[in-house]
Known about the structure:
Blueprint: H1 3-15, E1 37-38, E2 51-56, H2 62-77, E3 81-86, H3 98-108, E4 113-116, H4 121-134, E5 138-141, E6 151-154, H5 157-171, E7 177-181, H6 187-202, E8 206-207, H7 221-234, E9 240-243, H8 246-258, E10 266-272, H9 274-281, E11 287-290, H10 293-308, E12 316-319, E13 325-326, H11 337-340, E14 344-345
Parallel strand pairs: 1-14, 2-3, 2-4, 4-5, 5-6, 6-12, 7-8, 7-9, 9-10, 10-11
Antiparallel strand pairs: 11-13
Helix pairs in contact: 2-10, 3-4, 5-6, 7-8
Amino acid sequence: MNRHLGRAALALCSIVALAACSTGTTGDSSGSRPDVVDATIDKSGDLAGKRVLYVDAVPGNAILDGIAQGLANELNAEGAEMVRVFQINAQNTLDLAAGAQRVNEGIAQDVDAIIAFPLDVNAFRPGVKAANEAGIPIFIFQDLAGLDVTGKVAFPDQARGKETGLALAEVAGGEGTATVLSGVPTDNIEKAVAGAIDGLEEGGMKIVGDPNNQRNLKDDAPEAQRIAQAIFQKYPDLSALLVYNSASATGAIAAAKQAGLEGKVKIGNMSGEDVNISQVKDGKLAVNFDFDGPAYGKVMSELVIRALSGEKLDNEVVDAPLADVYNEDNAADYVPWTERLTYVKIPSSY
Length: 350
């Protein structure tokens, strides 16, 4: 992988602490593909006839799919047609420049609004500029500085980190040592880790190790397993380990089993999806924060609907909801994303 594509991949894998950057998981707890049906667009809705372009990152990722489904469900219900395209090039690989290119293609098709999941601020800025000059409302996920857009959905990264840290500390009995297995140092992950440290300390845990030196830079389970093994060797009496995403949770669980610490060290995940709930039910994962991608998409859709209904917005920022943390006591109450809404076929062209 060359430097350009490598930077793009790291941006995607880490920008929201995605649960499965390898795109190996989907939206249900069994790991199989979720059922999808044809979308139903309300032709009598307030946005009937409106066309919305969603410039997503890459296909096949559970959290990204959940966000896209939340968007499509709400926009279709209002009568708008949503098309989803990706930031990949002709070789089907990640390409930072593809984001702006997809925006320009949408402008050429005279779409009514554009939503995007930027991978790189500088690379995406020309697309934003072009949309603004064309008078087309453009929205982005994350409250990124340096992009002059119609609206943004901010992610509650520090809050989810703290909430998960507090929950893990409670499961660990509010005493003993704890540390955090981090990832690529993006704003999202850094904020989540900072919140996690606050939550663990507030919950009574003594922090050991340095998350800056405990990073899963490959963003996969094998690398997380390697890092977790080193952590367990250095701190054999560790009470709690909090990881930043789903793949890292799987790796840490494997490392604990190999070290003979399964059930002894409590493992928590602060960016979870459906697949992690089975790990909670099996007792392998102590706590799991539900990222709730569909809810993020719904919040964005509400912002888009406001603009397309005539409200004047200028860099409007709305917060994505802070979801729930699950443990063995409430895991049975978890509702899979595919049951919170109907997964629909989202077209790639109008």
